[in-house]
Specification:
The longest helix is centred in the middle third of the chain and has 17 residues. The chain folds into three domains: 370 residues, Glycosidases (TIM Barrel, Alpha-Beta Barrel); 53 residues, Oligo-1,6-glucosidase, domain 2; 75 residues, Golgi alpha-mannosidase II (Immunoglobulin-like, Sandwich), CATH 2.60.40.1180. By secondary structure, the protein is of the alpha/beta class. Helix content is 25%, strand content 16%. It has an eight-stranded parallel β-sheet with strand order 9-8-7-3-2-1-11-10. A six-stranded antiparallel β-sheet has the order 12-13-14-19-16-17. Strands 4-6-5 form a three-stranded antiparallel β-sheet, with no helix packed on it. It binds 1-deoxynojirimycin and magnesium ion. The site of 1-deoxynojirimycin has 9 residues, from loops.
């Protein structure tokens, strides 16, 4: 691609906001749209380019907004359409972008569509959802499971049939084989695109269409007892069907009717299957989310191999992306520890491809231990013991050292981390060496160096727990040296190099001139501009 062909989403950095937990403007203990608008100057200061907001639509909140009961409205908890329009305008005024969460695989059971669908077998919307007769013994039509535990089929007395739900029974799956469903959801996309939103993150894209013969999923030979019940089977027939790519392509066509909008897919699949979501000739999702950094052990050799595998598997002109945290996974600072969280930020913001930062990770926020009686997440409540709670990574943003970290004047929907009086935006902003300033400086450097935002990636062979690579564009070259371990390592590559440290985890190294063979302290990371 030529320099001028790169668009905002190739070059920019995405920041995910979990709206319930970002900033509460009205004291009800739940974050809202006005709260986000209040914090846009903070986000501008931080230096991110696009905001993705988890669902803000009307919803009974069985799965905290991922159960949508009206795709073109705003939940009163979050505000109203005027608040949304104000937010969108304010984002654009600051030359940032706004990405919404689209949840097309399933609606809420309280959506009007489902109410109609379940009312009778001959209702015009019957086929909008996935209804099947009971098996011969009266049980579920096949063995498909729910991600949140138990069977994926729910018996409905009214008509004596079962409906399928990949997640909660309050989240019936839409039938994407039905053309009216397709039209209705593509119209939803147009509704928001007309308003000016800059793109969508599509929820569970790989779930959207199921085997038309409803064949049983095979057992998972690697299942063991402390896994959640969904892991008993390989979802070979209930997810990732060939036909999904036609659907993704249809979504992309809608996106392409507008200027420079972005289509992201949430997809948890191995690389070889993931890259198919770019679509034939890149006519699918622009960015099928790459979750490897959420899943790999924190070891240089494994991460390096995964980067190479991913780089090698990308289709021509398929643009890479990297995700370090989200609302469904343990926070990075808890997974790898505080010291390594800085290395992780350097990695995320210097790999080739669009990075996504999860709110609060820029402060080093950690998972918060939620007492049992306060657990909110249905994934945990549904399968006590094995269903991992996602509450710990969804706690309120820590803004300052006032009560509740400045998140709310009311009673927060989830407790804050005890450390909020130390770890917060107010304390870290302008404080040299803080996690926040570190992020800000990484983002600043990245934004002004094409080598970092679009440059070529070349791995540099290294030993021990060192991960090293070059990023280059025209004559500009950066060498990244990251020590992913807690002991000192020697970095002595065959490659000849000399350069100046631009950003270091340990401030005193910045500006220092280095060359060739050097010792890298425990937990040390360096971004070096090659002379
Ligand atoms: C993926 C979302 O990220 C998660 O939070 C949600 O529970 C499921 N999809 C179901 O919508
Ligand atoms: Mg509120």
């Amino acid at each position: 691609m030529k320099y001028g062909d790169y668009l905002w989403w190739h070059k920019g950095v995405i920041y995910q906001i979990y709206p319930r937990s970002y900033k509460d403007s009205d004291g009800d203990g739940v974050g809202d749209l006005r709260g986000i608008t209040e914090k846009l100057d903070y986000l501008k200061y931080l230096g991110v380019d696009a905001l993705w907001i988890s669902p803000i639509y009307p919803s009974p909140m069985a799965d905290f907004g991922y159960d949508v009961s009206n795709y073109t409205g705003i939940h009163p908890l979050f505000g109203d359409m005027e608040d949304f329009d104000d937010l969108l305008k304010a984002v654009h005024k600051r030359e940032m972008k706004l990405i919404l969460d689209l949840v097309p695989n399933h609606s809420s059971n309280e959506h009007q569509w489902f109410r109609e669908s379940r009312s009778s077998k001959d209702n015009p919307k019957r086929d909008w959802y996935i209804w099947r007769d009971p098996a011969a013994d009266g049980g579920p039509p096949n063995n498909w499971l729910s991600v949140f535990g138990g069977p994926g089929w729910e018996y409905d007395e009214t008509t004596g049939q079962y409906y399928y739900h990949s997640f909660l029974k309050e989240q019936p799956d839409l039938n994407w084989r039905n053309l009216e469903v397709q039209k209705a959801m593509l119209d939803v996309m147009r509704f928001w695109l007309e308003k000016g939103v800059d793109g969508f993150r599509v929820d569970v894209m790989w779930h959207m269409i199921k085997d038309d013969q409803f064949r049983d999923d095979p057992p998972n030979p690697n299942y063991h007892e402390n896994m959640n019940s969904y892991s008993r089977q390989i979802p070979a027939y209930s997810t990732d069907q060939d036909e999904v790519h036609e659907i993704v392509h249809k979504m992309r066509r809608v996106i392409d009717d507008y200027d420079e909008r972005l289509l992201i897919g949430e997809i948890y699949l191995p690389i070889s299957k993931l890259v198919r979501y770019y679509g034939e000739d890149n006519r699918g999702a622009h960015l099928p989310f790459n979750f490897q950094l959420l899943q790999l052990p924190w070891e240089a050799a494994k991460i390096k191999a995964a980067i190479s595998e991913y780089e090698g598997a990308l289709p021509e002109h398929g643009w890479p992306n990297w995700v370090l945290g989200n609302h469904d996974n343990s926070r990075i600072a808890s997974r790898v520890g505080k010291e390594q969280a800085k290395i992780a930020a350097m990695l995320l913001l210097s790999l080739r491809g669009t990075p996504t930062i999860y709110y609060g990770d820029e402060l080093g926020m950690e998972d918060v231990n939620i007492p049992e009686e306060k657990i909110q997440d249905p994934q945990a409540l549904n399968e006590p013991g094995v269903g991992r709670s996602r509450d710990p990574e969804r706690t309120p943003m820590q803004w300052n050292d006032a009560l509740n970290g400045g998140f709310t004047t009311g009673d927060p929907w989830l407790p804050l981390m005890e450390n909020y009086r130390e770890i917060n935006v107010k304390n870290q902003r302008g404080t040299k060496g803080s996690m926040l300033e570190f992020h800000k400086r990484l983002l600043e450097l990245r934004a002004k160096e094409p080598a970092l935002y679009i440059g070529k990636y070349t791995p540099v062979p290294s030993t021990g727990n060192i991960l090293a690579y070059l990023r280059e564009f025209d004559a500009d070259k950066f060498l990244m040296i990251l020590n992913l371990g807690a002991s000192e390592e020697t970095f002595a590559p065959k490659l000849q190099w000399r350069g100046t440290v631009k950003i270091a985890t340990h401030n005193e190294l910045e500006g220092v001139h280095l060359e060739q063979s050097t010792n890298i302290a425990a937990n040390q990371g360096l971004i070096i501009k090659i002379d």
